[in-house]
């Protein structure tokens, strides 16, 4: 029996028009992603990785093509519906952490749960649990500026995973980190996700990081030029 993929991308096109020139950031790209899979999107600068991630996450609209979650067609949703979709299903990790500077680690992590209508007490408990999980139980009341880059990224991982969203999208999550911290962060992300059967979709230009994912899609000029699986070619 064939499994139904969690996400189906069909013939995605994204065209940017700049100074009369048309740029195909995505050029008729199709792929399927299964539940619980660790997915890497690799490629050089400008190959379309972030565009693909943003469209999959409902942050951007495609010019043409389909993004299907079960029976839900993301390309047909309006902004309000997309926001709801993201709040209920998706967590994000960014290269620059994107933490709110005036909030503590604990408050940053709890913020996402507020939109889900979780009570204050429960938000605090869940956020504390997540911060402990990423090794920051002693830094909960620190603000981002009082934390190292690696620690800030741990907070943002706690924020992405709190409430156990189905999918975690990460765009160059280790882009600002040294090699040792990069491996720690990758172990954390994949470890938590595997335990909870969450799907991770991670953009990187670092070929080394393909060791941490189950399947890597290699992009060039808005197309997938190669697919590799951990331990060999697909
Ligand atoms: N808002 C925009 N307007 C015009 N062109 C854009 C826009 N966003 C992206 N592009 C173009 O689309 C292509 C793909 O960009 P994208 O940001 O997806 O690349 P990337 O693979 O994430 O690169 P990087 O590794 O540098 O982050 C590039 O040629 C880029 O210049
Ligand atoms: Mg990018």
Which key terms come to mind for this protein?
about 230 residues, alpha/beta, seven-stranded mixed β-sheet, four-stranded antiparallel β-sheet, 6 helices, about 30% strand, binds adenosine-5'-triphosphate, binds magnesium ion
Rough outline: globular
Order of helices and strands: EEEHEEHEHHHEHEEEE
Radius of gyration, in Å, reads: 18 Å
The largest β sheet comes out as: 7 strands, mixed
Protein structure class:
alpha/beta
Q: Which hetero compounds are present in the coordinates?
A: adenosine-5'-triphosphate, magnesium ion
End-to-end gap? 20 Å
Strand-residue proportion: 25-35%
Proportion in helices: 25-40%
Point out poorly predicted stretches: none
Q: Provide mean pLDDT, rounded.
A: 94
Strand order of the largest sheet: 6-7-8-3-9-10-11
Number of helices: 6
DSSP E strands, number = 11
Structural features, described:
The protein is α/β, with parallel strands linked by helices and 234 residues long. The chain has six helices and eleven strands. It has helices at 49-56, 79-89, 105-115, 120-133, 149-161, 179-195; strands spanning 7-18, 21-33, 38-43, 64-69, 72-73, 90-94, 167-171, 199-204, 215-220, 223-229, 232-233. Helix 6 (179-195) links the parallel strand 7 and strand 8. The longest helix has 17 residues, at 179-195. Bound molecules: adenosine-5'-triphosphate and magnesium ion (MG). Magnesium ion binds next to helix 1. Magnesium ion binds at residues 49-50.
